[in-house]
Amino acid sequence: MRRLRIGLVFDLAEKHRPQPGEPRDKAAELDSPETVQALQETITSLGHEVLPIGDGQDLLKFLTGGESVDLVFNIAEGLHGRSRESQVPALLELLNIPYTGADPLTLALCLDKAMFKRVLKAEGILTPEFREVLSITDAESLEFPLPAFVKPAAEGSGKGIKADCRVDNLEALRRVTLRVGTTYGWPVIVEEFLPGMELTVGIVGNDDARAIGIMQIEFLPGSGGIYSYQTKKQYLKLVDYHVPPRLSAKILKETEAAALQTYQLTGCRDFGRVDFRLDRQGRPSVLEINPLAGLNPISSDLVILSKAVGLNYKTLIGNILSAALTRTGLRNL
């Protein structure tokens, strides 16, 4: 295979720091220069030319300026709307430029937690019961079985999640739902809170998709028992990770199977991560899927999990890139 010209597209958190009145986790899903540098150096070490382009608007200027690439390595989250993660892939599809990761439909579906859960339910995949709260009026009269968990309908990386998002009484349920909705926008997802162990499964590949491992997330004192924005920021002191989890072989097998089924069902490509909690019967229940999983070389869950099973950062990125090159036919050039 010849040396490819690969564009790197990303949204930098430092360009979108919170302004007065904005939540401090405004840029929680966006990337650091550390991540961009690590990807650039790693892809270069795999034998390709890397062009760090920038965000979606930078990509548009790059392409309309007459520049070209063989492939885009996309980690751009986008900034506005529930389909924001689809913006860069949609532009690339319009121009018939190959790229890594999921397509616009999958990214939009998986970011919209209510739509995602409806698809799971239609296919018989276990996921917590939920309600989509559409407005202030809905929140003020909200009733839902307790305990419950409240979260924004289209965010990730712990954005909008605080310790009090786990609610045990009706007053707290309505208050937290109102706060989340007015801060991060409507709708808001209220779902059944599951009491069991939290797990995440890393996946790489396409038709040959495989789980690279399962990681248990053990919450330490001070974490509030949830994977909040604050817990993720301070994971070194608030979380312990266990690979493999302290579970029976039967539950691990069921978790892996559900992760792969969810990955294939939603049309994920090249890589992703599926999050679970065990329900009251000890069954793995899908919380969310991330088809654009974080790739920070130190702190991202997929990277931590990969290292725990013996895959270093270069190998992980190489596997993701290899999957994309095979899928797009670029491997044969």
What is the terminal separation in angstroms? 5 Å
Number of helices: 12
CATH architecture of the largest domain: 2-Layer Sandwich
Question: How much helix is in the residues?
Answer: 25-40%
Fourth-tier CATH superfamily name of the largest domain: ATP-grasp fold, B domain
Biggest sheet strand line-up: 10-9-8-11-12
Total number of domains:
3
CATH classification, class level of the largest domain: Alpha Beta
* Computed CA radius of gyration, to the nearest angstrom: 20 Å
Tell me the total number of β-strands.
12
- Show unreliable segments: none
Structural class: alpha+beta
Shape: globular
Mean pLDDT: 96
Could you characterize the architecture of this molecule?
With 333 residues, this protein is α+β, with helices and mostly antiparallel strands. The protein has three domains: 5-101, Rossmann fold (3-Layer(aba) Sandwich), CATH 3.40.50.20; 129-192, Dna Ligase, domain 1; 195-328, ATP-grasp fold, B domain (D-amino Acid Aminotransferase, Chain A, domain 1), CATH 3.30.470.20. It is 35% helix and 21% strand. The strands form three sheets. It has a five-stranded antiparallel sheet with strand order 10-9-8-11-12, with helices on both faces.
Question: Which terms summarize this structure?
Answer:
333 residues, Dna Ligase, domain 1, 3 domains, 12 helices, Rossmann fold, four-stranded antiparallel β-sheet, five-stranded antiparallel β-sheet, 12 strands, alpha+beta, D-amino Acid Aminotransferase, Chain A, domain 1
